[in-house]
Amino acid sequence: xxxxxTLSLAALTATxxxxxxxxxxxxxxxxTGGTPDGGAPEGTHTQYVVxxxxxxxxxxxxxxxxxxxxxxxxxxxxLGGLLxxxxxxxxxDLQTGVDEQLSAGDFILLASLQASDLVNANNVGTYVxxxxxxxxxxxxxxxxxxxxxxxxxxxxxxxxxxNSPADALIVGALAGGSLSAGPGSVSIELPLGDAAIxxxxxxxxxxxxxxxxxxTSGKLGGAITAEDVDAKLMPAVQSLIVGLIEESCxxxxxxxxxxxxxxxxxxxxxxxxxxxxxxxxxxxxSNSLIDATIRNPDLDLLDADxxxxxxxxxxxxxxxxxxxxxxxxxxxDLPAGI
Length: 338
Hints:
Elements: H1 3-17, E1 44-54, H2 59-65, H3 78-90, H4 94-103, E2 109-115, E3 121-135, E4 156-160, E5 169-175, E6 178-192, E7 195-211, E8 214-225, H5 226-248, H6 263-271, H7 281-285, H8 288-292, E9 318-332
Parallel strand pairs: 4-9
Antiparallel strand pairs: 1-2, 1-9, 2-3, 3-4, 3-5, 5-6, 6-7, 7-8, 8-9
């Protein structure tokens, strides 16, 4: 089977297997993010820094981290499904870049869990921040990745980055050391290629195993609006694809000069419709697979006024995404008012 057919089938299957939003009742939160009106977080804060962020490399991983974002009983992860399909069929390796940038401190995700107890508790709040200025420094030698990750040993201290949202919150409950929370509104940084992009998630949910020393088996999911797909996600995906081409292809005349079997050759074969060895954003947006997946929202989370109100108007307006994660102990000063 050709790459085009294989990739199309894998991506569309991965996207639709998580389920499209349909039916269900209205949510009464009355706001865009989905933060609950009642049940304010209570208790002491326990702080963490993410030491592993898992981006789906295949459909199975995309399914494993998917979460039900619209309460229709079906787990959602459309973006993860497509990224997993690209990983398994076109050799796209996002995880290595994520691991390297996380270890080097290029992006830092902090979490503060407020709870009266870390085993069983209601009104548990998880605040999420972007981190900065780690102590110890991420690397002893910035030119040697083998010396990096020093800030992720469970003893690091951090500042909250100046560009970090101060009110990113998901509220839920702990039962037997397992936290289930949402919906909420949080922002995360997701490396795609050489740079991390900020994704502002609505209907954010989290499932994770909690201990004082760390968070394990974590799943974080949410949705990004159609506007953010076009403004943030698509340019990042295009930059990622261009990077793959530049790594393995050296055009000479009408020959793209790609290494046989390379990711660059495969993405050109799928996305380069006019055979010019380039994939500008316009060409990527017009691709039938992209138009049917990333640029085709799978969830109806907002009403006509832009308020968080799942399945209220029958218009799919948001794209689901979910990742896996773990975290270790950390120390940082909370923003005023938390």
